[in-house]
Amino acid sequence: MDETLLGHLSALRRSLLRAAAGVAALLLPGFLAAPAATRALVRWAVPERLGALHYFAPLEAFRAQLHVGFVLALAAAWPWVALQAWAFVRPGLREEEARALRRWIPLSTLLFLGGALFACGAVMPLAMAFAASFAEPGLAPVIGLGAFLRLAGSLALGFGLMAQTPLALALAARLGFASAAGLRRARPYAVVAILTLSALLTPPDVVSQVLLAVPTLLLYELGIRLAAAAEIRPRP
Questions:
Q1: Contact indicator for 198, 213 with CB cutoff of 8 Å
Q2: N or C: which end of the chain has fewer CB within 10 A?
Q3: Within a 10 A sphere around the Cβ of 97, how many other Cβ atoms?
Q4: Helices (H) and strands (E) in the chain, counts
């Protein structure tokens, strides 16, 4: 195997291990903060007519707390994860490209956190209100804690990742890998890709997928406009 390829694989392995170590270091604080975060999310997102949440297995509440702790740890460690990604690609960039990418790491963090907060603060109440709309005298919902938190975690992670769309497109244009015109031509393929990713990043229900796909399509359109402003144009 080519030594250059081995070097790239070794660097990628180091970056992934460092990113994973950063997340792992925050798992315990995330686990300890999970109960308070869960109570706040339940109070905010669950309509009163749905009643209390339930758990159906002895360790389901514990597993749910682990899930929330991991999401909190990942959100807190995102700047470190983004920094490791930058460190991996830095050797292959020119100095001006490296400066541009380094400046955008804080923006990536803000977009990830903003997307996650939007999912929990705005999308989860809509999803739970939609679920409650099917309740009637002969049909009472019994919602499990684990299912509720899996939905919240999936939406938070999905929205956090998909919120990177305009930044990624603008950065690609700034580095010369894409153009606004090319992104417009690729719009049909982008729609298919966004719908596919929305299906992969959310639970298998149409409502969650639509709630993620529609904002992401709007972010793609925003990314085209940012790319038009950021792309490198030849000097006259």
A1: yes
A2: C
A3: 16
A4: 10, 0
CA 132, CA 143: separation in Å to the nearest integer?
10
CB atoms within 10 A of CB 60: 16
Cα separation, 222 vs 204, whole angstroms: 27
Q: How far is CA 186 from CA 193, 209, 219, 227, in A?
A: 10, 21, 15, 13
pTM of the model: 0.75
As beta bridge partners, residue 136 has 139
- Read off the DSSP letter of residue 139: B
Q: What is the DSSP letter of 50?
A: G
Residue written as token pair 């995102």 = 78
pLDDT digits (tens, 9 = 90+) for 139-197: 878 888 888 888 888 888 888 888 888 888 888 887 778 888 888 999 899 999 988 88
Phi and psi dihedrals of 144, rounded to 5?
A: -85, 145
Q: Give residue limits of the domains in the chain.
A: 1-113
Query: In the numeric block, which tokens belong to residue 199?
Result: 């299906």
- Neighbouring CB atoms inside 10 A of 127's CB total 22
Q: Which residue shows structure tokens 């497109």?
A: 169
